[in-house]
Write a structure and sequence with these properties.
The complex is a heterodimer.
Chain A: H1 7-18, E1 24-29, H2 40-53, E2 56-61, H3 63-79, H4 86-105, E3 111-112, E4 117-120, E5 130-133, H5 150-154, E6 156-157, H6 165-174, H7 196-203, E7 212-215, E8 221-225, E9 247-252, E10 257-261, E11 267-278, E12 288-293, E13 301-307, E14 313-322, E15 329-334, E16 337-348
Parallel strand pairs in A: 1-2, 3-6, 7-10
Antiparallel strand pairs in A: 4-5, 5-16, 7-8, 9-10, 11-14, 11-16, 12-13, 12-15, 13-14, 15-16
Chain B: H1 6-9, H2 19-22, E1 26-27, H3 38-50, H4 60-80, E2 87-90, H5 93-105, E3 113-117, H6 122-133, E4 137-141, H7 151-156, E5 163-169, H8 181-191, E6 195-198, H9 210-213, E7 217-221, E8 232-236, H10 262-300, E9 305-306, E10 317-321, H11 327-336, E11 339-340, H12 356-360, H13 365-369, E12 371-375, H14 382-403
Parallel strand pairs in B: 1-11, 3-4, 3-5, 5-6, 6-7
Antiparallel strand pairs in B: 2-8, 7-8, 9-10, 10-12
Helix pairs in contact in B: 3-10, 4-10, 5-6, 10-14, 11-14
The chains are: A alpha+beta, B alpha/beta.
Chain lengths: 352, 404
């Protein structure tokens, strides 16, 4: 059981104990004390919960790997003009690779986390398990789990995925868990104040791009910007241009330019994806109809998905979508079920 | 006061489901801490129950308590070859080491020069780094691949009249490797530099004599020799007593204010007395168990490599490297089988980082990660060793397979 010290994984551990599993709690020590989770202070909270539940508990140090596999790629993505979501890599690499191999070493069958997502086993024992949205749609975290394949899903468990957040808090209080009233974490854990540009500067000092031009679609210079790592597609704040509102349309690392436009210019017809994976393990034959979610808390847009065998795909929205940001994940759903997803490489500006 | 319901005063152990299991653990982590000897528990219990006085009080109860503390001072002095008046009881060896370093560097102020090694326990290494930040100059002598400091190299770094202190760990907590501190003491004396010896891991395992080592300052703790946690000591053999480092009371000859931990100090005294009587037999028994363990593991795991040269290592310690087996994971797997050992040094909240000592010996990060420390002690027998010899290689293979 991956225990962050927060309320969700605490209750998840308690539920597994109630269900009769032999549970081993592990806090992955990933970040320093200024992080919103996975610091040693959080490990102390998790330890108290594990002690309360009477389960084995360990702290596993993955700080160096977290830096090289998650934090540095995050900074490099900003420097390349992208908008990264480190949580996906963290889930795949840390929860369902590093922690899973640790679990195997300890003789455990599965890794459980406190994510709001649901896994349904296949009908036959060898059938692939499927991944579904969490029952609490306002907390649903299936978006961050899209690139789990059959191998990971076979060993993944999400004990709170079928509960509402209020129920989880209620259970935590009933169980007398120390973490029942802990505040929600919203931002990326290692950027607790939401100041991405500062963190990029700390991780890659000396690599920061200097100031550059703010231009419109025709290339006319409208103003100056302090560095492309301050901007993400769809952003309105911080442009400082008269005659607004202006929005970021595109971030160009090669020219160090930020292309701005009006709200209606943000709408695009689709997206090129790479790194596409399907939870079933294989791309479907022919085009796929479903809903595509292009950022966390996006409602999901009806679209056609055309996947190739080489891990690329084109997504065509039925209605144009705004702020399709390279670096974000595009996750395919059919109803509540996660089919797979990929990484947005570039928007498709013209209709199919 | 009437007895309340049991749960109001119970400690965590009463509600932990792990408590029953703890009685069946094969405990091979005696370098982390040791179980109390029954003699120690008995003496401490008597003090807790029957000696309520404050050692500073004038009246009979105070005198009794003072008597308990002073008897322990005699017992410890006899074990480490120190005059009782030179011993200061502290809350831990960490506190004692901190006091020793700050005390020695303090009067010289910002320009103080310190000589130490790259394999010190954090309770020496971190105060040294703090003093460095405050303006002191610190020279750190490295070790060879067997974890040994060259006394002549260390002596060459001493600056007569300028070096305020040389600080050396007698037996390293991770590898168990013992330094030639007697030789270092001679060379330090020639240079007129006082020597601080962190003897925490050595006291109770090998003979430790302040005079024979040439130590001006020597630190240790009760819980490494089957005494209680929460009691350490500092021997300050120097002629001029140093400044108090905890102010606000006359205790410990004004060196460390605060009412004494009477029962704990009594426990240290009894543990020291047992160690003095048993030392030779204890070391021989531990070495036999340790060697049986090494031979058994070696037969099952030919790739096993030992850190340190056998006759330079504490008799109870076996530090090994298993290539490709993450030590922290193996420790967790062994824990699941009721076998308690340790990977690198335990850190805050149990998060293990690569051991600085093993890196200083020239191991790469991967080898340091594959290190395991097994340390025997009171209560360990040959049957337990044989069980570990059967179990550990199987788990190591499982951990290696999962890590690959």
């Amino acid at each position: 059981m991956g225990m962050s010290g927060g309320v969700d994984s605490s209750v998840a551990a308690a539920l597994l104990c109630e269900q009769g599993y032999e549970v081993i709690g592990v806090t992955m020590h990933l970040a320093g004390s200024d992080s919103r989770c996975c610091s040693l202070d959080d490990a102390d909270d998790a330890r108290r919960v594990a002690d309360r539940l009477g389960i084995r508990f360990y702290v596993a140090n993955y700080k160096d790997r977290f830096r090289s596999e998650v934090i540095e790629p995050f900074a490099d993505a900003y420097l390349a003009g992208r908008t990264p979501i480190p949580c996906v890599a963290c889930n795949r690499r840390f929860k369902f690779h590093h922690l899973l191999s640790r679990a195997r070493a300890l003789g455990a069958e599965a890794v459980a986390t406190g994510h709001y997502a649901q896994r349904r086993p296949g009908i036959q024992e060898d059938d692939t398990a499927t991944l579904w949205r969490g029952r609490d749609r306002s907390k649903d975290q299936s978006y961050f789990l899209f690139d789990l394949g059959p191998a990971e899903l076979r060993h993944a468990r999400f004990p709170v995925g079928g509960l509402e957040k209020d129920e989880v808090r209620e259970r935590a209080r009933d169980l007398g868990l120390a973490t029942a009233e802990k505040p929600e974490s919203q931002e990326i854990c290692f950027v607790p104040d939401g100041d991405y540009a500062r963190v990029v500067g700390e991780i890659r000092p000396g690599r920061l791009p200097g100031p550059g031009d703010l231009v419109d679609a025709e290339g006319a210079v409208l103003g100056r910007h302090p560095g492309i790592h301050h901007f993400t597609v769809g952003q309105r704040r911080g442009l400082g241009l008269p005659g607004g509102p202006w929005y970021v349309r595109r971030v160009e690392a090669a020219t160090n330019r930020v292309v701005v436009g009006r709200a209606d210019e943000l709408r695009v017809h689709g997206a090129h994806l790479r790194g596409v994976r399907f939870t079933s393990g294989a791309a479907p034959e022919g085009p796929l109809r479903g809903e595509v979610q292009i950022r966390y808390r996006h409602a999901g847009a009806p679209a056609k998905i055309v996947a190739t065998d080489s891990g690329e795909a084109q997504v065509y929205f039925e209605e144009p979508e705004r702020a399709v940001a390279p670096g974000q994940a595009a996750v395919f759903y059919r109803g509540e079920q996660v089919l797979g997803g990929g990484w947005i490489e570039a928007p498709i500006e013209s209709p199919a | 006061m009437p007895w309340g319901p049991r749960h109001e005063a119970s400690c965590a152990l009463d509600r932990s489901s792990a408590d029953a299991r703890s009685w069946f653990v094969i405990y091979l982590d005696h370098n982390a801490t040791t179980p109390l000897r029954p003699e120690v528990v008995e003496a401490m219990t008597r003090v807790l129950r029957d000696v309520p006085g404050n050692p500073s009080s004038t009246h009979a109860l105070g005198r009794t308590a003072r008597g308990v503390v002073e008897a322990a001072r005699d017992q410890l002095g006899a074990l480490v070859g120190a005059a009782p008046g030179k011993i200061v009881f502290t809350g831990s060896a960490t506190e004692a080491n901190n006091a020793a370093l700050h005390g020695a560097a303090g009067p010289r102020g910002r320009g103080a020069h310190l000589v130490t090694t790259t394999i010190e326990h954090p309770s020496v290494a971190e105060p040294a780094s703090l003093l460095e930040k405050q303006g002191a100059v610190v020279t750190r002598i490295g070790v060879d691949s067997t974890c040994r400091v060259d006394p002549d190299e260390l002596a060459a770094a001493l600056r007569p009249g300028e070096t305020a202190l040389v600080s050396v760990i007698l037996a390293n907590n991770e590898t168990g490797v013992i330094q030639d501190v007697a030789r270092i003491g001679e060379l330090a004396a020639e240079a007129g530099v006082p020597l601080h010896v962190d003897a925490t891991q050595a006291v109770g395992k090998i003979p430790v004599d302040v005079g024979a080592l040439g130590a001006s300052l020597l630190c240790g703790t009760a819980h490494k020799l089957n005494g209680p946690k929460g009691v350490g000591f500092l021997v300050d053999a120097g002629r001029t007593p140093s400044e108090p480092y905890v102010r606000g009371g006359p205790q410990e000859r004004r060196r460390r204010g605060g009412t004494e931990n009477v029962a704990g100090i009594c426990g240290l005294g009894v543990a020291a007395d047992l160690a003095r009587q048993e030392l030779g037999a204890r070391a021989a028994r531990h070495a036999a168990l340790r060697d049986r363990l090494e031979a058994g593991l070696r037969a099952a795991m030919p790739g096993l490599r030992r850190n340190g040269v056998l006759d330079q290592v504490l008799p109870n310690t076996l530090s090994i490297v298993l290539e490709g087996v993450p030590g922290d994971v193996l420790v967790e797997a062994l824990d699941g089988e009721g076998i308690a050992v340790s990977a690198g040094a335990a850190c805050h909240s149990g998060s293990v980082s690569p051991s600085a000592t093993l890196l200083a010996m020239g191991l790469d990060a991967e080898q340091a990660r594959g290190s395991l420390r097994l340390s025997v002690g009171h209560g360990v027998d040959a049957d337990q060793i044989d069980h570990v010899v059967k179990t550990l290689p199987v788990l190591a293979e499982r951990v290696r397979g999962a890590a690959a």
